[in-house]
From TrEMBL:
Domain Growth arrest-specific protein: from-to ranges: 219-417
Family listed: Belongs to the DRC4 family.
Molecular function terms, GO-annotated: microtubule binding; small GTPase binding
Region (Disordered): 1-25
Range of residues in the leader sequence: none
Cross-referenced InterPro entries: GAS8 (IPR039308), GAS8_dom (IPR025593)
Gene label: GAS8
Organism lineage string: Eukaryota, Metazoa, Chordata, Craniata, Vertebrata
The keyword tRNA processing appears for this protein: no
Protein name in UniProt: Dynein regulatory complex subunit 4
Keywords annotated in UniProt: Cell projection, Cilium, Coiled coil, Cytoplasm, Cytoskeleton, Flagellum, Microtubule
GO biological process, one term: flagellated sperm motility
Keyword Cytoplasm: yes
Species annotation: Phyllostomus discolor
Length: 482
């Protein structure tokens, strides 16, 4: 910038090698015409620079709008990802609740089945004990009768040896009658027991069918299995009763054989009865012990069958839950894969926007630097022309004031752009550097900012227009007055 002139006390400027006083009218008019041409050319260049400035401003507006659009797309993507995450969490909660309900329902069904099985087993045990007591009572009565008959036989053998044949016949008739009575009695009891068990079984089946009417097919299958087990159990009881009757018949046959043996060996009846009493007692005790063990074995077998059935049902439920767990894991892996794909696409879009914005801002910076250099050059040329010309001070002052107004308008526009850029950077979260002044590398106040990492927010390579308060305003000059 040329220094200001201190006043009119300085020497008269030289124009084309002549002082203004030595120039004639034609030379002055020619000089004024050249100055006017220079002024017109400067005006054309000023208009050209204004057009270039408008183009730069338009490019900046377009870039800003594109940046806002990308930010809106980014916010939409974030919102979509948050909604997808919320939906995923809701689905996980729903599946967890379903699993809890299934476990609770399974536990309730298992508890009900255990309670029903326990009640049925207790009732069966009670009935079995009642029947066993009745049978034992009958056996004791038979033993008493047999003992009485043996004593009567001994008395008859000792006292009435001559009436042996008649007594044997009577005893045979009595034994046959007792056998018939016992058979009739046990046949009647077996029939009553069968009718009672059939009636009870029908009643229980009816109650179970009414109670299980609303359950699903799996529970119906379990009911059929339980009904089959119950039927087998009652069949076993019936078979046991038949076996007991058969054993009693065999015992009666043995008694007949013993009576025949008494007929053949009447002399040794007493001694044989004494010898056979103890082995018979031991044999009966062993038979009772074996029956008791057989009953325990059957009960253990029944319990084992029930336990295996429950184990199969539990394994089936466990397999179903494992299958549902695998399905949930596969869906979770799929959702994670979709989330990773969205993250990859989002990162690629951000990097693309960063590269495009960085290149555009770099082009704008270089254009602005070139325009600033051209303005400085034209300013120096204009100062030289004004210093070399000998114009009217009033006209020179008017021209200088107009140029200063134009430059002030441009400086005001540049400051507005700087303020707008700083506001946009603040909104985007990018901080301008502080504590630095423009250097020779950046005389126009353009400050290059390094590109952040791809993961940083709003990471775009930008060149920020920044002017330090200590720096003089751009394009601000004080024009000398003649």
């Amino acid at each position: 910038m040329a220094p200001k002139k201190k006043g009119k006390g300085r020497g008269t400027p030289i124009v084309d090698g002549l002082a203004p006083e030595d120039m004639n009218k034609e030379q002055v008019e020619g000089h004024i015409a050249r100055i006017r041409e220079e002024l017109d050319r400067e005006r054309e260049e000023r208009n050209y620079f204004q057009l270039e400035r408008d183009k730069i401003h338009t490019f900046w507006e377009i870039t800003r709008r594109q940046l806002e659009e990308k930010k809106a797309e980014l916010r939409n993507k974030d919102r979509e990802m948050e909604e997808a995450e919320e939906r995923h969490q809701v689905e996980i909660k729903v599946y967890k609740q379903k699993v809890k309900h299934l476990l609770y329902e399974h536990q309730n069904n298992l508890t009900e089945m255990k309670a029903e099985g326990t009640v049925a087993m207790k009732l069966a045990q009670k009935e079995h004990r009642t029947q066993e007591g009745a049978l034992r009572k009958d056996m004791r009565a038979l033993k008493v009768e047999l003992k009485e008959q043996e004593l009567a036989s001994e008395v008859v053998v000792k006292n009435l040896r001559l009436k042996h044949t008649e007594e044997i016949t009577r005893m045979r008739n009595d034994f046959e009658r007792q056998v018939r009575e016992i058979e009739a009695k046990y046949d009647k009891k077996m029939k009553m027991l069968r009718d009672e068990l059939d009636l009870r079984r029908k009643t229980e089946i009816h109650e179970v069918e009414e109670r299980k009417n609303g359950q699903i097919s799996t529970l119906m299958q379990r009911h059929e299995e339980a009904f089959t087990d119950m039927k087998n159990y009652y069949n076993d009881i019936t078979l046991n009763n038949l076996a007991l009757i058969t054993s009693l018949k065999e015992q009666m046959e043995d008694m007949r054989k013993k009576e025949e043996h008494l007929e053949k060996e009447m002399q040794e009846v007493s001694s044989q009865n004494r010898r056979l009493a103890e082995p018979l007692t031991k044999a009966r005790e062993e038979m009772n012990e074996m029956r008791r063990k057989l009953g325990d074995h059957r009960r253990d077998k029944q319990i084992l069958v029930c336990t295996k059935a429950r184990l199969k049902v539990t394994e089936k439920d466990l397999k179903s839950l494992q299958w549902e767990h695998e399905v949930l894991e596969q869906r979770f892996v799929q959702v994670q894969r979709e989330r990773d794909e969205l993250y990859g696409k989002f990162t690629a879009a951000i990097l693309d926007v960063q590269q495009k914005t960085g290149l555009r801002n770099l082009v704008l910076e270089r254009k602005l630097q070139a325009l600033s250099a051209a303005v400085e050059k034209k300013e120096l040329q204009l100062n030289e022309v004004l210093a070399a010309s000998n114009l009217d001070p009033a006209a020179l002052t008017l021209v200088s004031r107009k140029l200063e107004d134009v430059l002030e308008s441009k400086n005001s526009t540049i400051k507005d752009l700087q303020y707008e850029l700083a506001r946009v950077c603040k909104v985007r979260g990018v901080h301008l550097p502080s504590g630095h002044v423009p250097t020779q590398d950046h005389p126009c106040g353009l400050w290059p900012v390094a590109c952040p990492r791809p993961g940083d927010p709003l990471g775009a390579c930008l060149l920020h227009l920044w002017s330090h308060p200590a720096a003089p305003p751009l394009l601000h000059r004080t024009w000398p007055l003649g």
